[in-house]
Amino acid sequence: MAIAANFRKYAQALALQLVLPFGRPVWNGARPTTRLGREIRSYVTKAMKARGLVEYHEARPVPQWWKDAQARARAMVKFVKEGQLKLDLSRTVVVSRSEFERANNYRKQLLRGKAERGEIVIA
């Protein structure tokens, strides 16, 4: 009963969670078969017709200067993409054993702090 107590204490919380019927009333398919169900449906339909449908605001027009700026930005992105260097990083690079050992030794020296970048030249 914590939920019910919460809704009694904060009525707006219940109002925010109610389903808001937008548009034409449609209730789970077919018409109600009982007399009471039909009466309830008629009262709800009358209330919704009296309230009217929801009116949506019209979208404001986008200024021309904004459209122009967006077009220039898209043109710049296209220009930059065309000018980029395309790297093929998916292919395998073959390295000899001696090159691998020199690079690995340099890496170990860097990790131990015995070498600064640029001090040791791998030749």
Protein described:
It is elongated and about 90 Å long. It has helices at residues 2-9, 11-17, 35-51, 64-83, 97-112. Helices cover 55% and strands 0% of the residues. Among the domains are: 2-51, no CATH class; 88-123, no CATH class. The model has no long low-confidence stretch (mean pLDDT 76). The longest helix is centred in the middle third of the chain and has 20 residues, at 64-83. Helix 1 crosses helix 2. With 123 residues, it is mainly α. The chain is built from five helices and no strands.
Any descriptors?
123 residues, mainly alpha, elongated
Fraction of residues in helix = 55-70%
Low-confidence stretches: none
Question: Structural class from helices and strands?
Answer: mainly alpha
Radius of gyration: 35 Å
| End-to-end C-alpha gap | 78 Å
Report the average pLDDT across residues.
76
Strand content: under 5%
Number of helices: 5
What is the H/E order?
Answer: HHHHH
Shape: elongated
- E-strand count: 0
